[in-house]
Amino acid sequence: MPRPDRARHLGTCGARDLPVKGAVFLDRDGVINRKPAQGKYVTHWGEMEVLPGVPEAIALLTKAGFDVVVVSNQRCVAKGLLTAIELEAMHEKLCRELAAKGAFVLGVYYCPHDNQPPCSCCKPSPGMLLKAASEHQLDLEDSWMIGDSEIDIQAGRKAGCRTARISDCDSSGRGAADLLARDLLDATLQLLNL
Q1: Are 148 and 167 in contact (CB under 8 A)?
Q2: 136: CATH
Q3: How many angstroms separate the CA atoms of 42 and 99, rounded?
Q4: Active site residue: 5, 17, 29, 178, which one?
Q5: Element (H or E) spanning 146, and its range?
Q6: Where are the alpha helices (DSSP H) in the chain?
Q7: With left for phi above 0 and alpha for psi between -120 and 50, is residue 137 left, alpha or beta?
Q8: Which end of the chain is more exposed for a tag (fewer CB within 10 A), N or C?
Q9: Can you list the residues of the chain whose pLDDT is less than 50?
Q10: Domains identified in the chain, total number
């Protein structure tokens, strides 16, 4: 079966039309929702546990003039654990739940491919960020990528964004990230105070 070269895009998720210069790109698992155990995936809504402070953080980012975009590797589709339609329905519900709390997400981009063969959308490649920037006229130099792994940071750097790493480690866990934070709310407060 041929493999598309680009990330799948869910579309807008109830975001308001705000004049913005930049965006904040968020990884999903480990940043927005509790990350499943190694080798496991969130495959249905009952497993989607939004982390504390996430709605508040996203609301603060949008209030500050940033568009918020989710960019997530979702190998579970390639592995046949759920369909793209099921994943998109879960993302739509997540966006509705967040929007009900004043946390607006401009769009959700995901890579449905497995790691091999490599594709341009799977992080650490910056494909999802570049696609979102092109489709929504986002200024990547005025944008941030927030993730909980080094591949998130690499994708952000390759796209020209500043980066923040979510980690419960000390500063040695920062890697190449510009900021190190305990969670999304902490990262948001730090980047808004720069």
Answers
A1: yes
A2: 3.40.50.1000
A3: 21
A4: 29
A5: strand 144-147
A6: 54-63, 75-78, 84-99, 127-136, 150-159, 184-192
A7: left
A8: N
A9: 1-8, 14-16, 18-20
A10: 1
**In the chain, what's the furthest Cα-to-Cα distance?**
48
Encode pLDDT of 152-177 as tens digits: 999 999 999 999 999 986 655 667 89
Residue in this structure with the two tokens 């401009």, named with its chain if needed: 106
pTM of the model: 0.88
pLDDT at 175: 77
Which residues have CB under 8 Å from 160's CB, separation 6+?
140, 141, 143
Quick one: pLDDT at residue 84?
97
Catalytic residue among 27, 67, 178, 183: 27
* pLDDT, position 75: 95
Annotation says 27 is catalytic: yes
Closest to 148 in 3D by CA, of 55, 64, 54: 54
Q: What does the pLDDT read at residue 173?
A: 61
Residue 41 belongs to what domain range? 8-192
Query: Is 1 inside a domain boundary?
Result: no
Residue 67 a catalytic site member: no
